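[agent] plan:
  1. take the single chain provided in the ticket
  2. run structure prediction with default settings
  3. attach structure tokens to the ticket
  4. add a short note for the reviewer (M.T.)
[agent] executing step 1
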Amino acid sequence: MTPVELDEKDYVIRVHSEPAALDAEAWNALLQLQAQPTPFMRMEYLLALHASGSAVPESGWAPQFITLRSDAGLQAACALYLKSHSYGEYVFDWAWADAYRRHGLRYYPKLLGAVPFTPVPGARLLAVDEFWRARLVLAIGALTNQFKLSSAHVLFTDDADTAAFEAAGWMIRHGVQFHWTQDTLTPVADFTELLSRLQREKRKKIQQERRKVVDAGVTFSTHAGLGITPELWDFFYHCYTLTYEAHHSTPYLTRDFFARMASDMPQHWVMFVARRGGQAIAASLIAVDEATRSAWGRYWGAVEHVSCLHFEACYYQPLAWCLANGYQRFEGGAQGEHKMARGLLPVPTRSAHWLSDARFASAVGDYLAQEGQGIAQYVDELRERNPFKSAAGDDPSSQAGQP
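[agent] step 2 finished; step 3 output follows
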């Protein structure tokens, strides 16, 4: 399909419905210029979502990747989608869509800037500098107007993106996730030391949970990169589908997506496999980036129930691996206040929103202001329940053990 072009004097804005038509090397080079790049914005990842049938028009994700080019080359880019629903986003606007419907207005399709099914904060506006970042925001607005869409949304933005959207008058929505970050002043050496920094009751609970897994006869093996065999990927995918089945849902990602990850981005994956009696019974998968020393908890599943196995596979094994390999950050995924008791602390997240109807924009703006105050209070309350000890003892008000 021929790209859509929007005329500008000194540069060309193009909108691409086929990610494969883009220059992957130029896209990835632009990504690496950002303050907070992640593997999920690499073209290999985005292309795998599309080529595998996971994020395609038929499933409600129609790519509209936007690029800004000057005579000097690619200056800015953003992964955008026309969405016919709000599934797979993790920033919920169902109430907004319902309000449009009740007033006889069309909310879908909407324009979405996000990594499908991947609630990981990071760079969304890929730009060589702030000048081009601002023009990229304007281009997204122009595209929204040209398509006569109800709204545009860019999710899990980093600081630079958030500032650019705020400057352009977009509304900012706040959320919270739970991340572990290495203490830069007094680094944690290993998982045993991490436990020693927790308050006594939290430490004892984790030790009890881990003991249950050991007493059940479960052991773990760790497989990284090319060490994840096709057989292990098959077993993992079976477990992954069982997790969705248990929640009466359908998996977002196809087996072909993970095959493409194994071939195109193997260095970004680590798998933990649980075995009992020599048989694999569960698997969890994390994404990693050696350049930034960051890791992200992604997916898990089990073929049989073992008490506390989920915590071991999804938190304790990955955290121990991060510490053993010098990683500085582990993000536990969307939501989940229970993660705090396991050493992951609350971190604010942001997304940017623009609604074309001024009446709805005003109402949503008021709602977001109130919601933002509630989120700020919630984060303050959570921080008061910090699971780490203070230097003086078990005072929960300190941030000891974390920066």
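[agent] step 4 note for reviewer: The first strand starts at residue 4 and ends at 7.
[agent] ticket updated
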